Amino acid sequence: TTYDCTCDESGTYAYVYADEPGYVYLCPVFWDAPATGTDSQAGTIVHEQSHFTVNGGTSDHVYGQSAAKSLASSNPSQAIDNAEYVFSEPLL
Question: What is the pTM for the complete model shown?
């Protein structure tokens, strides 16, 4: 994986282009996040990797654990496709 650290979008952890596996763009919030745990650098990498089409192509329907849990109740099919739901607490 190539990590591009030139992103300057404030308020953003990272982003990827789903059809360009292997490239993760790291943004300012990423560098202030803890290494592991909720809303962490490790979690961000796992979250972004899940968006690649070759890895399942998850979407961002909602962000945050509470919103992901609510989505699971209100719209299970979207919850299954939601990166935050699938990888909200990575064991890294």
Answer: 0.85
